[in-house]
Amino acid sequence: LLFLCLQKLSEKTLSLWSLINSSKSKYTNPFYTKELNRALYPVTSMRHLELWVNYYIRWNPRIRQQQPNPVEQRYMELLALRDDYMKRLEELQITSNPKLSNSSSSSSSSSSSSQMMSHVQTHF
């Protein structure tokens, strides 16, 4: 039974090379020139050497912790931006309402400010 399955597998499986060879012009480099005596010599000096960290060290947990997650990093940036906008909004509300800028009633100022701030909603 296993032999029959393997035989049918080879009959029904298409080769990737058949697809590539059917349209070679699509997959060949138009700038390639055939030079028999030419060899490519890589630059091996240390200053030109780069380690592809995301690929080669992706399984090392210490290195992975050092690299910030792009989503988490963006989230932190957005939180900081939200805080900046909230501070700016509070400053604008204080400057637009002279009662809030009175320094003698600082406790009422913070409560009035927080009441005004409660109307602002964010998605965070």
Task: Name the descriptors.
124 residues; 7 helices; mainly alpha; 0% strand; phosphatidylinositol-3-phosphate phosphatase activity
Care to describe what's here?
It is a single chain. The protein is mainly alpha-helical and 124 residues long. The protein contains 7 helices and no strands. The longest helix has 27 residues, at 70-96. Mean pLDDT is 75; it is low at 104-116. It is found in: Cytoplasm; Membrane. Residues 115-124 have a biased composition (Polar residues). This is Myotubularin phosphatase domain-containing protein. GO terms for molecular function: phosphatidylinositol-3,5-bisphosphate 3-phosphatase activity; phosphatidylinositol-3-phosphate phosphatase activity.
State the low-pLDDT regions, or none. Answer: 104-116
SSE pattern: HHHHHHH
Mean pLDDT: 75
Oligomer: single chain
Radius of gyration: 32 Å
Distance between the termini: 59 Å
Q: Report the sheet-strand fraction.
A: under 5%
Query: What share of residues is helical?
Result: 55-70%
General shape: elongated
Number of helices: 7
User: Strand count, sense and closure of the main sheet?
Assistant: none
Kindly state the number of beta strands: 0
> Structural class, from helix and strand content?
mainly alpha
